[in-house]
Amino acid sequence: MNLKSITLVLTMIVGLSGLHASQIVPAFAQQPDYSVGDRLLSSKKPPTKEGFKEVDWEVLVPKDWDPMKDMKNLDLSQMDDADPRVMKAMERMKKIWSDAPVEPSLNGARIRIPGFIVPLDAQRKELKEFLLVPYFGACIHTPPPPANQIIHGVAVKRLKEAEMMSAVWVSGTLETVRSDTEFGTSGYRLKAELITPYKRK
Predict the structure, then answer these.
(1) For residue 111, is it within any domain?
(2) Which of 45, 137, 168, 198 has the most other CB atoms within 10 Å of its CB?
């Protein structure tokens, strides 16, 4: 399943939850350069001298994973939000999202990936643990992405001046280790050796 399909499913879930862009965007007034759902572009740079290979979020999703295979006959557009079938579908989708499989070949890979930070333990404006997510607003005012689209980052050195939804590049060693947090379930853990600001061209 590609990221376009995942985004379509996410849009369906957001619609069912009653959230709308007009309600979401003001919460991120400190980040005027991005709107909810915005993704960061890859730089297409070759591997670094430290051996970090740039990857995009697509590679974190197993090619044969189709979370919608059991829901293809359900037409949610013809149902009211209060319909029990809708509520059941949402609960099922949340479970599918949390149980989303990871790509085993990435275990131990040294990667460089762009994303947005969701702090887990900010103390005195310093950050040790965080979630890295592929699009602006994920896990905060929209439902979390599937587990294979959330990375639990553990910084080697505390990151100073990290803010919610800061756009960054993160480099480190990826592990296929699942974690449950208050913001969502991550399918990967990344030992973050280098975290740098993401700059738009």
Answers:
(1) yes
(2) 137
